[in-house]
Specification:
It is a single chain. The chain is an alpha/beta fold. It is built from eleven helices and 17 strands. The protein has two domains: about 220 residues, Medium-chain alcohol dehydrogenases, catalytic domain (Quinone Oxidoreductase, Chain A, domain 1); about 140 residues, NAD(P)-binding Rossmann-like Domain (Rossmann fold, 3-Layer(aba) Sandwich). About 25% of the residues lie in helices and about 20% in strands. The longest helix has 13 residues.
Length: about 400
C-alpha cells in the first residue's frame, strides 16, 4: 500500500458521518487471562480534548501483547481489554487542541508518548514523558480516567499501553500518535510502533554501536533481528546471534547475523563460547529474551573493561538480576532501553524516512499476513515461534 490520496481516505470512511459520534465497529476483546480473543462489536467514543481517534488499517502482534494476554502479572489483569500496540492507521477525527494532525493523516501509534512540554520531554537525556510514558498499570485515558471503549450494553472495556490497536477504531492521547509521510509503505510502517524501533534504536541510540565493533544478540525474535539490522547499518564487523531455535539461524543470516550460537549445542556456558570466538568478549550484547539467566550470559559475554549490555526483553517475574555488584568492577556496564531511546513524536518521522531510503531494511520482518478475524491463529503462530510479525488487516 502506497500513499494515501483523498480518494483512498474517503474509501475507508466519511469523516462527516462519524466525527463527534460514537462509532460501532469490530474489535478483538479478551475477557480474561489466556482466553481466546472474541471479535465482536464495540462502541468507540469520540476523542476528548487532546485526543485522536484513528481508523486502524494494519496491526501486528508483539510478545508484549502475548504476555498481557496471558496475564502474567498483576499489572496486566484489567479485563475485558483491547490489546495491541503495533499498528498504522489514518486519523478519523481529532479532539480540541490537537494541532499537529488532521483528518486523513497517516499515523502510527506509540506506547511511549511524548507531550513535548514536560521536564522529561525537554531533556536530551531521556525519551520518557512525565505523563504519557509507557505504563503497564494504565488502562484508562489520562484526561478523565475513563475508557473510550464499551460493549453494546455499556460495559467498559479497558485500554492497553496507551494504544489498543486490535480494533477497527481506537482513541489515543495525541502524545501517543505520530504523523508519518503519506508516501510511506504503510504495511511496513506498522513495524515502527514498537519492535523495529526498539531494536534499531537500541543499537543506534542506546549502545551507539561503532563501526568495526562486535555484537552478540540473545534472542532472535523481531526485536533481536532489528538490533542486528541496526548494528549492520552502523558497520559492526561481527554480529553473533544466540537462540535455542535452530530455524532462527537461517532467518538471522538474511538480516545481518553473521554467526549463530545455539546454547543447546554447547557443553559450557554461552558466554565462554562467545569469549572464545571473539578473543575476550564482544563490545556490545543485547538481551532480547526476557530471561534473567540469559541476561547473565549476555552480560558475561562482553569484554571486560568496556563491554556494554543493553536490556530489551520484558521480564514479568519478580526475580531480580542475578549479578553481584562486584562484577561491575570489571568495567562491564548494564543499561535498559524503552522504545530504543527514540523520542516518538519528534524523532520517529525521521526514522521512518530513513527506512524509506533503505538505511534500515524492513523486508523480512513481516512473515505472515492474515485477516483480522483470524487473530487467534496469529497469536498461535507467535506462541509456536513460527512468526516474527504477523500482520492483521482490518
Amino acid at each position: 500500500m502506497g500513499s494515501l490520496s483523498d480518494e483512498t481516505v474517503n474509501g475507508f470512511f466519511n469523516p462527516s458521518e462519524t466525527t463527534g459520534k460514537v462509532i460501532t465497529c469490530k474489535a478483538a476483546v479478551v475477557w480474561g487471562p489466556g482466553q481466546p480473543f472474541v471479535v465482536e462489536e464495540v462502541q468507540v467514543d469520540p476523542p476528548n480534548k487532546m485526543e485522536v481517534r484513528i481508523k486502524i488499517l494494519y496491526t501486528s502482534i508483539c510478545h508484549t501483547d502475548l504476555d498481557a494476554w496471558k496475564g502474567l502479572n498483576e499489572t496486566q489483569r484489567a479485563f475485558p481489554r483491547i490489546l495491541g500496540h503495533e499498528a498504522v492507521g489514518i486519523v478519523e477525527s481529532v479532539g480540541e487542541g490537537v494541532l499537529d494532525m488532521k483528518e486523513g493523516d497517516p499515523v502510527v501509534p506509540i506506547f511511549n508518548g511524548e507531550c513535548g512540554d514536560c521536564v522529561y520531554c525537554r531533556s536530551e537525556k531521556t525519551n520518557l514523558c512525565e505523563k504519557f510514558r509507557v505504563n503497564p498499570f494504565k488502562s484508562v485515558m489520562a484526561s478523565d480516567g475513563k475508557t473510550r471503549f464499551s460493549t453494546r450494553d455499556g460495559q467498559p472495556i479497558f485500554h492497553f499501553l496507551n494504544t489498543s490497536t486490535f480494533t477497527e477504531y481506537t482513541v489515543l492521547d495525541s502524545a501517543c500518535v505520530v504523523k508519518i509521510d503519506p508516501n510511506a509503505p504503510l504495511k511496513k510502517m506498522c513495524l515502527l510502533s514498537c519492535g523495529v524501533s526498539t531494536g534499531v534504536g537500541a543499537a543506534w541510540n542506546t549502545a551507539n554501536v561503532q563501526p568495526g565493533s562486535s555484537v552478540a544478540i540473545f534472542g532472535l525474535g523481531a526485536v533481536g533481528l532489528a538490533v542486528a539490522e541496526g548494528a549492520r547499518s552502523r558497520g559492526a564487523s561481527r554480529i553473533i546471534g544466540v537462540d535455542i531455535n535452530p530455524d532462527k539461524c537461517i532467518k538471522g543470516q538474511t538480516m545481518g547475523v553473521m554467526d549463530f550460537v545455539n546454547p543447546k549445542d554447547l557443553k559450557n556456558p554461552v558466554h565462554e563460547k562467545i569469549r572464545e570466538m571473539t578473543g575476550g568478549g564482544v563490545d556490545y550484547s543485547f538481551e532480547c529474551a526476557g530471561n534473567l539467566d540469559v541476561l547473565r550470559e549476555a552480560f558475561l559475554s562482553t569484554h571486560d573493561g568496556w563491554g556494554l549490555t543493553v536490556v530489551l526483553g520484558i521480564h514479568p517475574t519478580p526475580r531480580l538480576i542475578p549479578l553481584h555488584p562486584m562484577e561491575f568492577f570489571d568495567g562491564r556496564r548494564l543499561i535498559g532501553t524503552i522504545f530504543g531511546d527514540f523520542k516518538g513524536k519528534s524523532q520517529l518521522p525521521n526514522f521512518a524516512t530513513q527506512c524509506m531510503r533503505g538505511v534500515v531494511n524492513l523486508d523480512g520482518f513481516i512473515t505472515h499476513e492474515l485477516p483480522f478475524s483470524k487473530i487467534n491463529e496469529a497469536f498461535q503462530l507467535l506462541v509456536d515461534g513460527q512468526s516474527l510479525r504477523c500482520l492483521l488487516q482490518l
